[in-house]
Amino acid sequence: xxxxxxxxxxxxxxxxxEALTFDDVLLRPMxxxxxxxxxxxxxxxxxxxxxxxxxxxxAMDTVTEADLAIAMARxxxxxxxxxxxxxxxxxxxxxxxxxxxxLIIRDVVTANPDQTVREVDTMMERxxxxxxPVVDDDGVVLGxxxxxxIRPYLEVGQRDEVREAMTDEVITAGEDVTARxxxxxxxxxxxxxxxxxxxxxxxxxxxxxQGILQRREYQDAAxxxxxxxLVGVAVGPFEADRAEAADEAGADVLxxxxxxxxxxxxxxxxxxxxxxxxxxxVVGNIGTPEAAEALVDFADGLKVGIGPxxxxxxxxxxxxxxxxxxxxxxxxDVASERDVPVIADGGIRYSGDAxxxxxxxxxxxxxxxxxxxxxxxxxxxxxxxxxKYKQYRxxxxxxxxxxxxxxxxxxEAEEDEEFVPEGVEAATPYKGSLASELHQLxxxxxSGMGYVGAASIAEFKERAEFVRVSAAxxxxxxxxxxxxxDEAPNYKISE
Length: 495
Prior knowledge:
Distance between the termini: 63 Å
CATH topology of the largest domain: TIM Barrel
Number of helices: 18
Strand order of the largest sheet: 4-5-10-11-12-13-14-15
Strand content: 15-25%
Radius of gyration: 26 Å
Helix content: 25-40%
């Protein structure tokens, strides 16, 4: 009797497909008519939100708070606020970003005509303003007072009332005023601020010369329909209260923030949140086509990355993960059929890695360590061996979990020793301004588009081809056989 083939259910598991990451591939150069500086970087990050550069900052407590989110949006990208803060603090950070470059300032510092000159001078110094509309108890504009008006009174009559020092002939405008119209009023009347009033003369806002000039400085900023800076917010899959507060505060995109979003409870909760908010909802992180299939029917975007980050230890702690290039490509295969944007989150060390992620199907990339060393990041500056660094930690580290991020990994504990961390606490070299770092990153990505001959992100994704690289090829691609004497801004010796 012939033997039946022995079943090998476990040996079969070892007949596995290959999965690749950034160092395993290179873009194949092609004939090109595109100069890198002319490559258009505009992209969608979610169904209804478009960025001028395809870059997001990570929702990490040593990377993105209001200051860095403002800087990111001014440069055309998107900052995603972390969630290791109270719900009230989340709303405050969103509002700070939204107020940063408003044409019409809504939270206006005002003076009362019965205040003394000294009181108003102290108030303006405390609030950081150089002038203020003077209003009555009903909010009707009576005049305007500035440092120039106050200065003589400080010398001779500090107790004089504001009504004596203010300018009572006030040039005002309505809600429909444009930046150009406001500037023309300022030029004609030699003033630096124009109160915005309703039909009854009640103050509703203020336009300042400084605000207009600041907006002009950031021509490529990512803004909403009202001209305010864009901002994203990370919310836990079970944080309906944070999602609601962020949405009401004006967040443009909510990021359902979980280390493994292909979890039935997470999927159900994310679907529920997406159905209750006005903001777009991006869900992550995932790493497989099957995960994309579970989310793509309701998500406005998908975020990809299971363990690729520099401070993430998920793969060695849990034994689970997916190399990033393969993860992005697998998710993009599904998402592209539904026209849902894909964000590659993590593992990007160089600008070349970022543009490879786009070639693999991503619409944008998210970075943490790349921006953690900038001035705008909240991490504290430390000095080691005479060199400056900034604090940087994974959201799966004990410290971040203790601060409230444990549910990102579907874990909760009261004491440090009860956590099973999937990240480390570290330091990253201090880098200076975010604008400089982003310039190097985007410039390198544009170079990659030039080598492929693509004038836009969409064309690049269609044209780009990969070649497989050997270990020798990887070594050849780096600086070698020399001693580097001066570090390049986009290639560090320590790397």
